[in-house]
User: Fold this.
Amino acid sequence: MFLVGLTGGIASGKTTVSNLLSDLGCKIVDADKLAREVVSPGAPAWKKIRHHFGDQVLLENGELNREKLGEIIFADPQKRRLLNSLTHPEIHKAMLWKIFNLFITGHSFAVLDIPLLYETGKVLPYMTYTVVVNCSEDQQVERLDGRNKLTEEEARGRMDAQMPLAQKVKVATYVIDNSGSLISTEKQVRDLHRKFQRSKAHWRLRLLMSSALLVTLGVLFYVFY
Ligand code: ATP
Assistant:
C-alpha cells in the first residue's frame, strides 16, 4: 500500500478534488473530519480537553464550545500548545487506524486529505506522492468569499497564515491546476487516478510485509520443531 498526501491552499479546491477521487473509488482519509471526530462528546481528545480546560469549554449538549476554547487559546500560547498536544496524537492515532484498516482490506493506496501537510510536516515522510491543488490567489479570495462571506482582508489574512501555495506547488509530486473549469479539473483528476492505479509503489510494502511474515514463520518453525 502507498499513501498520497493531498493538500493545497485555503479554498484552492482540495475538497473538490478529494470528492472527485472518492467518486472514482479512492479511499480518502480526511484529517479535518477526524479532527472533528476525536473531539466529539465522549471521544478520547474530548475527555482530555474536559479534564484540562474544565466544563467551561463545553456547551449544554456536551459539544465543545469552540468559541470559548478559541478565546482561551488565542490569549495564551501555552494553552494553545496544550490543546494541540491533546488533540494531535489522537488525530494521528485515528488516521493510523483508518490506514491500517485499508491496508488489511487489500487497498493498494489511500489518499490523505491534509490541509496543513507541509506546514506541520509530521506525516509528510510517509507520503509516496504528494498532490497540491492550485489556483491563483485572487481565485482563492473570490471562492472563499463566495462560500464563507469573508471580507477580502479577512480572506487574505487567513491565507497569509499558511505556507504560500506557490511554494507548495514547487515541492509537490503532482499539481492539479484548479484555476479553470470544473471539467478541466475533473479530467486532470481522472489522469492522476490512472497514474496511481498503474503505480507499483504498493508492492514495496507488500514485499516488506511478506518478508517479515516469512521470517516470523521461519523463527517459529525453528523454535517449535
Ligand atoms: P478549504 O480550504 O476550506 O478546505 P478547499 O481547498 O477544500 O477549501 P473547496 O471547498 O473544494 O476548497 O472549494 C472552495 C470553493 O470553490 C467551493 O465553493 C467550490 O465549489 C469552489 N470551486 C472549487 N473549484 C472550482 C472551480 N474549478 N471553479 C469554480 N469554483 C470552484
The longest strand covers residues 2-8. The chain has a mean pLDDT of 92. The beta strands are 2-8, 28-30, 109-113, 129-134, 174-177.
